Amino acid sequence: MPNVGKSTLFKLLTKKQVSIENYPFCTIDPNVGVVQVPDERLEKLALFSRSKKTVPTVIEFVDIAGLVKGASRGEGLGNQFLAHIREVNAIAEVVRVFENEKIIHVHKEINPQSDIGVIETELILADLETVNKRLIKLEKEKKAGYDKKLEKQSAVVEKLRQSLEKGIAAKDCGLTNEEYEMVKDLCLLTFKPVLYVFNSSAKNIVIPEELKKKNHIVLDFKAEEDLAEMSDSEKTELEPSRLNNLIIEAYKLLNLINFLTTGEDETRSWTIKRGANAPEAGAAIHTDFQEKFVKADVIDWQILLNAGSYANAREKGLVRTEGKNYIVQDGDVIIFKIAP
What we know:
Elements: H1 6-14, E1 31-36, H2 40-49, E2 53-55, E3 58-63, H3 78-86, E4 91-96, H4 112-144, H5 148-165, H6 177-183, E5 194-199, H7 209-212, E6 216-219, H8 221-229, H9 232-235, H10 243-253, E7 256-262, E8 266-273, H11 278-282, H12 287-291, E9 293-300, H13 301-307, H14 310-315, E10 320-322, E11 332-338
Helix pairs in contact: 4-5, 5-6
């Protein structure tokens, strides 16, 4: 919603100055910032290999303006903002829990459960409109000529429609993988995973039990702002920033993991989807690594460090040779071998 701290959080995450004002819809065009994903393994491996360069994994955060009740009908420039949400892979929904009379709440009361309900409803209503349009289009296509694929797709879209009309998000309506593939091009808003970020100034925040079950993190944005303005010596007696926790949780939400490459030239972290096999992981480096894949030499980063050197690890039989079906694990250090 407006005035919950989204732009403040974005500024803290990206160290990028954005417009923050005490009125709704200050953010109209989405701000985009690229943020480094904290990873202690990278620095340790870089020291281990005496690398000249270290290249971290990054995640892109987009600051999108607040939605209000009626956004799916265009209230508060809602259609424009919903289109921006459609372009992201996951949603970090900032929820206001703090009290501050000087900062206006669009509904005149602090009620996180109600705010979450409003946003969920608006996303569902927007999806329902998308689904209904697709059903109309499919009916026209079916009348033009019988196609078994169209029948199957219609059945899946109808299943989505019925769920959305009951207030059930698309991701919770029980589609099989095959069914999802038929309708993923709809880019439904409620297919996207959500991380709830509770903005609270209270140390002992009481979160309703129903909200505790949701994927969430609690942050004190004001305290984080104060920390950002302090010198390192001033921070020593204070609680450390929790922003890194948010970045890491957001990265997990996207179902991403990292594998690593290391050597004298550089140590680098590569982003892949969890469950990717060795050739698919290789494609993160270059398409040749997937198309011409022969094998991969793999060792866990910590086992490599413990061995003292790559030569020692190989001598002790700690470096494994893996083929095309190997599922890459988070923290694997990999050397790819490809055909000439």
